[in-house]
């Protein structure tokens, strides 16, 4: 076991401050201290990292390559300290040096190379892979600008670029020795070689150099460190003006530009495909580099490329890296000269695909002209995959054109990436049981019929190391005091807390901790929002990306409804509530941005209205991200998981709240179904249409929200306030777009496509049950504690074990 050595750690901090900044401890800024501390910690990490890779080589292990456009890592320092089990030593040293660890953690920029659920899942998976001792690489892009920073100005979202590398990132290491060339454009020339084989040569292309940066992923207390490898682009030619003729000069400039632009920025879309050429360039760029490197690494140790599937698995995180299958085919065909059949068999045994959404807007469908112009050789390969696949369909369903219409990879001028991913992979999985069932029985029904053995479910999970041990130290210590520390690496163990669910003293301790965390959040809100909130009120929190299907609108309409009630009857029985929102909207998603403005406008009025005696507060947390997320999960009484049933593939925020003892108010959607199964219907507040009901309405053209509007005065009053200037007297029309979307269909959409009005009354009833339940303090405490106790299933450790068992077949490396 390689451990952090106290004496060396302390000396290193002092040494690095001098070396980097010519400063002594008492002169250094917190930012400089952060760097010195991070580098000192890295010393130990590096030792473990090298030892891990030595073991991997000796054992000739099979490795999973998790290909993902996004890794939403969050800050590393605190997490690394925890996973190194070095907290005690670090705190002692920092104490001696008069440094506060929490202040230093605040200095780290939050690496936000992801949008939301899909990116954060990738980060949780890496944590679990290292902790469980499975050989893995995360492969992604080193975006210069990550997810934008959100500012709220006058109630509106304003996007500010997130230049996360400004101060340098101490945990990364540049690895120029593993650079790869990636080619775009040009054309393909076919020649016949001496053996009479057809060879394909890409000519007149532009290329960039993909240069990897490695970030260590430290396992929990097990000496194992895996790698997150993110690729940066550099220009391939160095200018040598004299030797360039005019054409070369032009090309060199273009290549420089291409290199500069490729990794510039993460697309801040979540669940919305926009068909941008640069996005396809990003996809091929990191995929090509990752696959090339994986194959060369394999060939350094092995002599037969045909056994690649024994040592390598590529997991495609959604369709974004699907060109991987075609890129692997290209390498096998063009560089290793395998036959099509041989190459296809290897590819098909090496690639596996995870679907993360059924939202049709998110489906990637590239125009063929764009795709073939940018990736001419890859396109030829996709064409051949498609040709053979269509032959298979015809063989199986003779004369059935509709099967081809639905399943072909190339159709009506488009490359359908999900279809390619399914055809090229040996495994296709959804991310929660309900989601996988919907894939099998609705969205991907035809593929399921053709390849039933490929389909499987992997219900998502989260890492308890970040979301309890790091994010909620008070509760983590309490849990450990009660049941020992097994839960840190074996979350089902936390079920042992059930034994305390009838014990009044334990329940009081549990709720005291919640109260402390509420105070911590209230302080944050006071500092950031200048709002005083009542720490005895019910903290009802909805934090996630802003999307109509997630229905933040239902939540705020309900707040407006409650406010109307209170105004009419200020003396009604009403337990004080604080409604907290946090959400980023994609920059171009106008309706989502309107909803943010609505939440803030409602908050501005209600928070200032003294006539309701501070009984309702509405808070919008600016720039919701991993780091402030940890504060929010820890402080929640109620977790809002209210998506339209069938739309949320899984949800993982729901699990983070549950782990921290919040009670879910939610629909039977995504992983909520499984959460309720674990915790019991009596320990959640469930409402709304079922996914079958939603799907049925959708098949029959929707429903008529006008009936509800005209017959339910409470709802009508709230909706009218969207257009009568009640919240924005100076601009009464501001929310007309929202009002219209709930009541009228337009060319593209049905009226109220997310069933907000349809579910309003059952939601309101569920909220009433929340308020009533909260009055019985002991019952509430029991429910909250049971949520923590019953969340064992939702560790990403369990999810990863299932991936390993069913898909990756990796060997576990035992700690040394
Ligand atoms: C999709 C697209 C579409 C093309 C343009 C850019 C872009 C960027 C990201 C995405 C990902 C959307 C899918 C996604 O994030 N799904 C979420 O995945 C979580 C992890 O499985 C799951 O818990 C959430 O329910 C699901 O919405």
Describe this structure in words.
- The chain is α/β, with parallel strands linked by helices and about 800 residues long.
- It folds into 3 domains: about 1-55 and about 75-110, no CATH class; about 60-75 and about 110-460 and about 800-810, Glycogen Phosphorylase B (Rossmann fold), CATH 3.40.50.2000; about 470-690 and about 745-795, 3-Layer(aba) Sandwich (Rossmann fold), CATH 3.40.50.2000.
- The strands form 5 sheets. Strands 1, 2, 5, 6, 9, 10, 11, 12, 16 and 17 form a 10-stranded mixed beta sheet that branches.
- Strand 9 and strand 10 (about 225-235) form a beta hairpin.
- The mean pLDDT is about 95.
- InterPro entries: Glycg_phsphrylas, Glyco_trans_35, Pyridoxal_P_attach_site.
- GO terms for molecular function: glycogen phosphorylase activity; pyridoxal phosphate binding.
- Phosphorylase is an important allosteric enzyme in carbohydrate metabolism. Enzymes from different sources differ in their regulatory mechanisms and in their natural substrates. However, all known phosphorylases share catalytic and structural properties.
């Amino acid at each position: 076991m390689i451990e952090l050595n106290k004496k060396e750690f302390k000396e290193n901090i002092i040494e690095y401050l001098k070396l980097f900044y010519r400063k002594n401890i008492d002169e250094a800024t917190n930012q400089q201290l952060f760097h010195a501390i991070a580098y000192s910690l890295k010393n130990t990490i590096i030792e473990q990292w090298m030892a891990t890779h030595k073991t991997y080589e000796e054992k000739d292990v099979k490795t999973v390559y998790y290909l993902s456009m996004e890794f939403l890592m969050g800050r590393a320092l605190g997490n690394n300290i925890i996973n190194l089990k070095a907290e005690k030593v670090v705190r002692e040293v920092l104490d001696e040096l008069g440094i506060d660890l929490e202040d230093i953690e605040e200095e780290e920029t939050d690496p936000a190379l992801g949008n939301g659920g899909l990116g954060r899942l990738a980060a949780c998976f890496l944590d679990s892979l290292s902790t469980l001792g499975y050989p893995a690489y995360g492969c992604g892009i080193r975006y210069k600008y990550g997810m934008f920073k959100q500012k709220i100005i006058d109630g509106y979202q304003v996007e500010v670029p997130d230049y996360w590398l400004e101060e340098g990132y101490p945990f990364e290491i540049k690895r120029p020795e593993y650079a790869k060339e990636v080619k775009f454009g040009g054309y393909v020339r076919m020649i016949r070689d001496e053996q009479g084989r057809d060879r394909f040569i890409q000519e007149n292309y532009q290329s960039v150099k993909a240069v990897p940066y490695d970030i260590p992923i430290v396992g929990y207390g097990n000496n194992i460190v895996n790698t997150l490898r993110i690729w940066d682009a550099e220009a391939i030619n160095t200018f040598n003006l004299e030797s360039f003729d005019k054409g070369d000069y032009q090309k060199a400039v273009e290549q420089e530009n291409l290199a500069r632009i490729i990794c510039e920025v993460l697309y801040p879309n979540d669940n919305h495909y926009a068909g941008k050429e640069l996005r396809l360039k990003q996809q091929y760029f990191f995929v090509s580099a990752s696959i090339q490197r994986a194959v060369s690494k394999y060939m350094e140790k092995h002599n037969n490329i045909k056994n690649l599937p024994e040592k390598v698995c590529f997991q495609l995180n959604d369709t974004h890296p699907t060109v991987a299958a075609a890129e692997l085919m290209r390498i096998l065909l063009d560089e290793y000269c395998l036959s099509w059949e041989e190459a296809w068999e290897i590819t098909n045994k090496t690639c596996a695909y995870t679907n993360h959404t059924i939202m049709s807007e998110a489906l990637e469908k590239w125009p063929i002209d764009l795709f073939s112009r940018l990736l001419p050789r890859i396109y030829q390969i996709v064409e051949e995959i498609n040709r053979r696949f269509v032959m298979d369909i015809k063989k199986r369903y003779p004369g059935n054109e509709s099967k081809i219409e639905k399943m072909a990879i190339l159709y009506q001028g488009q490359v359908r990436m999900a279809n390619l991913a399914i055809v090229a992979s040996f495994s296709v999985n959804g991310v929660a049981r309900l989601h996988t069932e919907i894939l099998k029985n609705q969205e991907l029904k035809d593929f399921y019929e053709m390849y039933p053995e490929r389909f499987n479910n992997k219900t998502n999970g989260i890492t308890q190391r970040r979301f309890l041990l790091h994010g909620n130290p008070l509760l983590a210590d309490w849990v450990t005091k009660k049941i020992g520390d097994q839960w840190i690496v074996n979350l089902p163990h936390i079920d042992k807390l059930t034994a305390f669910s009838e014990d009044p003293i334990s329940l009081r301790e549990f709720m005291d901790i919640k109260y402390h965390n509420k105070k911590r959040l209230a302080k944050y809100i006071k500092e950031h929002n200048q709002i005083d909130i009542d720490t005895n009120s019910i903290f009802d929190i909805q934090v996630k990306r802003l999307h109509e299907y997630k229905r933040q609108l239902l939540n705020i309409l309900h707040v407006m409804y409650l406010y109307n009630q209170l105004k009419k009857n200020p003396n009604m029985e009403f337990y004080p509530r604080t409604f907290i929102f946090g959400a980023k909207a994609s920059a171009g998603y106008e309706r989502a941005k309107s909803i943010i403005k609505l939440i803030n406008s409602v908050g501005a009025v209600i928070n200032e209205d003294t006539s309701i005696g501070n009984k309702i507060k509405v808070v919008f947390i600016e720039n919701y991200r991993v780091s402030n997320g940890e504060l929010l999960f820890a402080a929640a009484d109620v977790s809002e998981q209210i998506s339209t049933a069938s739309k949320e593939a899984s949800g993982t925020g729901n699990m983070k709240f549950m782990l921290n003892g919040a009670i879910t108010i939610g629909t039977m959607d995504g992983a909520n179904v499984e959460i309720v199964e674990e915790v019991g219907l009596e320990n959640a507040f469930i409402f709304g249409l079922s996914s079958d009901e939603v799907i049925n309405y959708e098949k029959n053209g929707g429903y008529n929200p006008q009936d509800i509007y005209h017959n339910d005065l409470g709802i009508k009053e709230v909706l009218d306030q969207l257009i009568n200037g009640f919240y924005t007297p100076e601009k009464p029309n501001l929310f007309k777009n929202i009002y219209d979307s709930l009541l009228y269909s337009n060319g593209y959409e049905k009226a109220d496509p997310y069933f907000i009005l349809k579910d309003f009354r059952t939601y309101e009833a569920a909220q009433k049950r929340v308020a009533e339940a909260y009055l019985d303090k002991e019952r509430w405490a029991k429910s909250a504690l049971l949520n923590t106790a019953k969340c064992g299933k939702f560790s990403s450790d369990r999810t990863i074990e299932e991936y390993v068992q069913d898909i990756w077949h990796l060997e576990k490396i035992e700690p040394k």
